[in-house]
User: What shape does this take?
Amino acid sequence: MAAALYRQPVLGLVAFSVAFLSQWLGHSLWTFIREVFGTWHNGASFLVGLGGAALIGAGLRRDEVSATWMGFLGAQFVWVGWFELMFEFYSEFFRFPEYDTGVPGLIAAPAVTFLMSTLPVMLMMFLFYGFYNRETKCNLMRWVHRTVGLSPGMPGNNSGRSYARIVALETLFVVWFCYLFWLYVSYLLASETAMLVAYGVWATWFAYIFYKLLKYPRAGSAFRYAIPVGIIGWGLMEMPSYLGFYPEMWLKPFDYPVTTLFVSAIYAGGLVYLANPPGGSPSADGAVPA
Assistant: This one.
C-alpha cells in the first residue's frame, strides 16, 4: 500500500509541490525575519544562512534521499539568509537606486538592481561548474554539450557522490538564474508585449519539463528533477502578481496567516513524504538533472 503512494503521477506532483512552495515560504521567511527582528534582522538572516550551510554540511555523509532534502532545504536557508542579506545590505550601503523597468507596475527595488550586477559571477559559475564539466550528470548541461558538439563523455559512477553539495549548488543556481532572467528581460525589452512573449516561452518550457518530471520513477531522482521544475513554475505564479493581477500573499504572511499555515503544512507534509520512500534510499539513482 505504501509503495503505491510513491508511484507516478503522485510522486512527481508531490515533489513539484514541495519545490514550488519552497519559493512561497522563502519569501515569507524573508518578511518574517525583517518584521520580527526589526533592526536585528541582519544578524538573524546571517544565522539563518549559517543554519542552512550547517544542514548542507550534515548531508554530505548521508544517503541519497536524506542528502537530497538536506541539500535542498539548506540551500533555501542560504539563499534567504546570505544571498538576500548581501543584496539588501550592500544596496543600502552603496545607495543603489530603484529601477523603473518601463513595464507598468514592475519597479525593481535597490536590492534587485544589485542582484542584476551579479550576472558575470553567475556566468562564471555556469562555465566552470556546468559547461566545462564534462563529467556532469546534469541533463540540461549534457544536452548543451551535445547541442554545441562537445561530447560530454561518460560520467563516472555514483560512488562517493556528494548529493547534498550537488543539490544545494543546483538549487542556488536555478533560483539565481530565474531572478536574473526576468530582470534582464524586463530591463532589455521593457514592454508588456515582450513580457508576454517571454512568459509564453517560459510556460512552454515549464510544461515540457513538468511532463518529464512525471516519468521519474524513484523518489531521489524525482525530487532532484522537481527542484528546477518547481522554481521555474514559480515564475509563472510570481510575474502576474508584479503586474497587479493578485496580491503577493507570500510576502505578507502576517496579513494572510491561515494561508501561510496551510502552505507550510502542505510543504512540510510533502517533504516528509519525499524523505521517507518505501525501502529506504538506494546508493545509486540515475542522473541528477538541473
